[in-house]
Amino acid sequence: MAKFGQADGTKKNRINQCRDWLTANLGITEVRKEQIYCDLLRSVTLQDINYWLQVIFAAGVATLGLVINSPAVIIGAMLISPLMGTILANGLAFAAGDLVLAVRAIINLSLSCLVAITFAFVLVGLLPFKELTAEIAARTRPNVLDLVIALFSGALAAVATCKEPKGVVTSIPGVAIAVALMPPLCVVGYGVGIAATLNWLNGLQIARGGGLLFLTNLVAITLMAMVVFLLIRIDTQSVRSKIREWHYQDSESSRIQSFLEQFPASNRLKAIGSLPSRFIMILIPVLTLLFPLSQSLMQLQQEIIQKQQNNQILKAGTEIWRQKFANFPNGTPRSDLGNFLTQDRNGKLVMQMRVFTSKLYTPEEKNEFVQLVASHLRKKPDDIVLQLIEIPTANSDIISKLAVTNIIEQQSQPTQPPSVAEIQITFLETTSAALQNLRLPPPAQLLGYEVTTSQMEPLGINITYLSERRIDRDANILLTEDIVNRLNFPTAKVRMQRISVSQGVITFAPDSAALPTASTNLLDRVGQIMQQQPTLHLELITDSTEEKPNKFISQRFEVIQKYLVSKWQISANKIIKTQRKPTDKEQPRSVNLRLKIGNEEQ
Predict the structure, then answer these.
(1) Which of 500, 522, 557 is the last residue of a domain?
(2) End-to-end alpha-carbon separation of the chain, Å?
(3) Statement to judge: residues 60 and 204 lie in one domain
(4) Which residues form a coiled coil (predicted)?
């Protein structure tokens, strides 16, 4: 037992020697330790107006920098960094087991976060534009690398705080930029503002990402500050006695102590004040954050791999096309590849190509291209789908000019940005190819879709379908996910608009074919729908019996048809008359209006 005790004491002596060596080389004396402790105690005061002004102004600068997508402005907000002192004080409280300092630091930090988020929320609400910029998006998906950066930055921040302000002071701006405490908080405020004004779900996702990044930085800096303060032995007996006296003299610390003494449970907190328990308390949130951060890192890795694979496919497809299919056998230019996009859809590689060609390609040539690409990529030809958009040209001279122009544009720097018309064509072609063969759950029938875009909503897809009932919630969610995956646009907004099959009933007066006045609103609605949806036909269902035929049936049909043709220019071929047996014993007087999909011309 004596040997084990001696070995344990030797190990502790070595650790203490290392701590003394580090403290001596950093030039940290007992007086400096007291100064560090007192400075961090003062940094958590709630009575410093200058501090709160810095929080508000830093939040304003960071929010505007995020919204206008300006890295320089955001860096300016980082350099202010008013929260760094409070977080370092939190790490000092864990290192020294100072409960009063811990409570004061937590209160100060909580109020600071609330002020920053609230100010960012108000500022976003006042701005006329709320576009999701690249700077905002970059702070909504933190990963393990952000945690590692925060760990290194937190250690450097603690060392820079401990050492006398001589040479290391130049590292403080770099630490502030690396950690970036204020921008993530402003992203939270931006997300809350978006959730309150535009899109509840997207806003909460943005706020969640910004909050996760801030918590990552907060926990990492606190942990490393605790480690550094422990290594320099900041909680020596002389420092403790000095700080204990300072707590009794400071009004805020005295109020915290008096408040804690009112609760019997406060004495139990001293029981968990041992160093191992404090380490466990700070390591638990670190380990908890590792799960979502690891998921984000894996997702980022998959996206990078997917991008590399897409680049490989584009390179292989372009080379094969130019070598085998761009020219005629005699070397004369035949086509020029204008646009080439790839997409993974349901386990199959979809290649969408737009070419300018003087001669259309045969199915055999298309199959040959697919075979060559599949062989190069080591895939099965059945796993590759080619969507070739061919734009005919007059002769091969145009192709030569296009090819030369394309090469010159690729080699010239900077490249000429595409025109709005070219972007629109590419956008519509890509959307049309992605939504090709879209199927709705029965009995819903697809009528068409409308694509919209705006600053508030980068991409909106309005799906119109014909059905007697609405698509249920689960099917709607699956269909929306399918459309978003097809478009490869996670923030796309999909809306479903139903047109009912049964449009209503027109009831005529007995022995009359005069159109009731109240029925014109119904016919106007039907006419407007049929104008907007050219594939729709109108079926007029009337009751008739062979024993007692109604002579007004044909006249009523003609009256309805004439109204729609004259006022809404609906083709007479799209209005169909159907007779059925009556459901009651009275003379049939009603006409049911039902819509169905048919050819535009019959």
Answers:
(1) 500
(2) 102
(3) yes
(4) none
- Whole-angstrom distance, CA of residue 369 vs CA of residue 122: 56
How many angstroms separate the CA atoms of 18 and 3, rounded? 23
Shared domain for 264 and 254, answered yes or no, is yes
* pLDDT tens digit sequence for 84-124: 888 888 888 888 888 888 888 999 999 999 999 999 999 98
Q: List 541's β-bridge partners, or say none.
A: 578, 592
DSSP code of residue 357? E
Euclidean distance between CA atoms 435 and 442, whole angstroms:
18
The answer to whether the pTM exceeds 0.85 is no
Q: What are the tokens at 364?
A: 């055999």
* Cβ neighbours of residue 586 closer than 8 Å, sequence gap 6 or more: none
CATH of the domain at 491: 3.30.300.20
Using the structure block, give the residue that is written with the tokens 């811990």.
Answer: 102
- Quick one: 25 and 117 in the same domain? yes
Read out DSSP for 538-598?
EEEEEE--SSS--THHHHHHHHHHHHHHHHH---GGGEEEEEE--SSSSPP-EEEEEEEE-
For the stretch 191-224, pLDDT in tens is 998 888 877 788 888 899 999 999 998 999 999 8
Token representation of residue 318? 């372009």
In contact, 531 and 522? CB cutoff 8 Å: no
Pairing of strands 493-500, 460-467: parallel
Confirm whether 183 is domain-assigned.
yes
Q: Does 489 lie in the same domain as 403?
A: no
Are 368 and 472 in a shared domain?
A: no
- Based on the domain organization, do 238 and 212 belong to the same domain? yes
344 lies in which domain range? 307-416
The domain that contains 566 carries what CATH number?
A: 3.30.1330.60
Chain centroid to CA 239: how far?
49
Write the CA distances from 462 to 174, 199, 511, integer angstroms. Answer: 48, 16, 45
Range list of β-strands (E), 84-180 = none
Put the strands of the sheet holding 335-345 in their side by side order: 335-345, 348-357, 384-392
Within 8 A by CB and 6+ apart from 343, the residues are 349, 350, 352, 434, 486, 488
Contact 287, 113 (CB under 8 A): no
Q: Distance from CA of residue 304 to its chain's centroid?
A: 17
**Tens digits of per-residue pLDDT, 378-417?**
888 888 888 888 777 655 444 454 455 554 444 544 445 5
| Residues 31 and 144 occupy one common structural domain | yes
